Prior knowledge:
Elements: H1 3-6, H2 20-41, H3 46-73, H4 79-102, H5 109-136, H6 148-153
Amino acid sequence: MNEATEAAVSWSDELSVGIQEIDEQHKVLVGILNEMHDAVRHNHGPEVSLEILDRLIEYTKIHFAVEESLFRIFDYPGYEDHHAEHAALLKEAQVMRAKVVSGESKVSFKLLHFLRMWLTEHILGSDMAYADFLLKQGVQSKSRSKSWFNKLWH
């Protein structure tokens, strides 16, 4: 098997919302999800998987804050629904994390499947819905640097 078929999610132009900063952040989320996939596939143990899950949750919170800031700045009409979707995911992720910590559950391919489906469906659905709106409001599709946010994160 090659790397692409072993990844939980492979980045493609289909997942691009056309706003470089958001795409760069989505790529980081895809990368963390693929790290978790690799850890589960190679039985790296619950501590490693939990650490990756924690990073995924933390980065997701920050990414959602960036998206929602853009929504408020540009008065995106779908803000409330999108915010509710973000809140529901974070709540579900925290519940899953608590189950892993308590031993009730473990980071498994079932959890990875849920996260992969949520990420791709959210990007392809809800995120694509705001992309045209933000671009028409003047949000730049490209920035001068690769990603100001990811420079701070790393």
